[in-house]
Amino acid sequence: MSMQRVAYGEMQETLARILIKYGFSPDRAERCSGLFTDTSCDGVHSHGLNRFPRFIKAIVNGSVHVEASPSPLMQCGALERWDGRRGPGNLNAYECMERAIALSRECGVGCVALANTNHWMRGGSYGWQAANAGVIGICWTNTMPNLPPWGATEPRLGNNPLVIAVPRTNGHVVLDMAMSQFSYGKLASYRAIGSLLPVEGGFDTEGNLTRDPAAIERSQRPLPIGYWKGSGLSLTLDMVAAMLSAGFATYQIPADESLETGVSQVFLAFNLAALGPVEDAMAIADRILNHLQANAGDSDIRYPGEQVLKTRVENHLLGIPVDAAIWEEVRNL
Amino acid sequence: MSMQRVAYGEMQETLARILIKYGFSPDRAERCSGLFTDTSCDGVHSHGLNRFPRFIKAIVNGSVHVEASPSPLMQCGALERWDGRRGPGNLNAYECMERAIALSRECGVGCVALANTNHWMRGGSYGWQAANAGVIGICWTNTMPNLPPWGATEPRLGNNPLVIAVPRTNGHVVLDMAMSQFSYGKLASYRAIGSLLPVEGGFDTEGNLTRDPAAIERSQRPLPIGYWKGSGLSLTLDMVAAMLSAGFATYQIPADESLETGVSQVFLAFNLAALGPVEDAMAIADRILNHLQANAGDSDIRYPGEQVLKTRVENHLLGIPVDAAIWEEVRNL
Asked: Is the ipTM of this complex over 0.95?
């Protein structure tokens, strides 16, 4: 694999041109390409440029309706239910987090439940979005079945990523975590470099816990985080998303990567400014991180999002590192 | 250890009498003793009767102010900040979840952030409370430092239990999970019966992952669920609780079980009735559980709260099982 660096603007404009070719209006193409480019720029390659060809396939196969935008179905104060109308998942999620933020400006809290949408690509994007607006953001999505519940051998849960974002002047804290210990993408990466996982990541076909990524790919039995605990968390996140949105639960989402559509999501925003100066709240966050990392000696205590920010600065300066073959593939779309 | 069974009413009245002796008004004694008795009746012995002597000690040492009740500090629509005034943690939590539920009836969502409170005993209590009211409940608390962050050897995080509750006609789903894979109470139980943990639960003093509970008690290095993932989740739950409540973060809470006070909590309620008939939402929950457990063969797929309900019914019929020595100790308080 040969690596090269591509300037932010070049990547974004390239993706926008392709999106317009596939039917996006120029303004939506700009936002959508910006979300993909930001994701690669932040170092989350799996859901940035590297994901783009699959996104285009989902447009071609009809899972993603390029010009559909979400519309409100019900509103009660700070709580709203929206229909994603199978639009592009990242645009839908962005718009619903914007709406949750706006609701939080009026009501202190805002909650938007979104049905009938598509894969949101990097969940962390909507955490950064909330934190950039100075609010606390929490959101999650369900997914197709890709994780066996604790006690079972076949996938009946989604890995249902959960995002929690806290604003700070010196770098937001953005947690973006799926309920499986390792994604299938991560398993493939470890396998490709011939490496064992750093900790047990699933069961082999004999039902033994293993650090061998290929064995888990064969068994299709990745581990939920915390074994029975992540299994319960994944289930309840799915239930809340489906009940609030009246959309699909994991068991209703096609268990096929190329056809995964109709997912349900929840977006929450908490307006810190409603409770006093936002600076005071951000100072609380700063003090927590200072204590977390103080006098840590040789240990390496990071907060979620810390590495992202360093990577972003570097990639804006030097260009975004890409796999040359994927960059070539994308430019030919 | 000798086991006996005590009728629900007898336990509740006994605890209420003791609480009145220690300064509770009769109505508060009744609710507080009810929460303790419900917890034991549900089979969560560690935070029910078995915890009661320590609760009384916290009154005697001044950590818990028996007659203090929470008061609102700020309100903005669906978001409120309350001061717990160091009152009894379970009464404070109950009252704040009631308030979040009431807010959700008005605004669709309700959020109460509570500072300056005490250990809420069983977090699941407030999940059952929300689900009994027909709403979705989410709440969490921070705790004293008792969990090393990923990459560190000393406790700088709390185990910060998180509760997610979903109402159903046929038994609510109530997840109640701390961010450590095993609590110190669980480690002690495994050690007492000479058993290894079912999965790795922490590091020994040499820094190796281990299933030996005593080795983890010695090192004080229990594992966060999902390693780095639970570490990040614990941190962000602490940040959100401290920022919304303007109360203590984990690093400010005395790292001594008998002096742990001033914790911060968040209570969220989502009013399903604002979005349509609650029966429709509960039917979504039922279908999810039916698919989760359908044709499971020999596997044992449980949902969170399933076992609790069976235990509750049995203990209401037969009496609540207690350790005779603890029951004797409590009656002598």
From this structure: yes
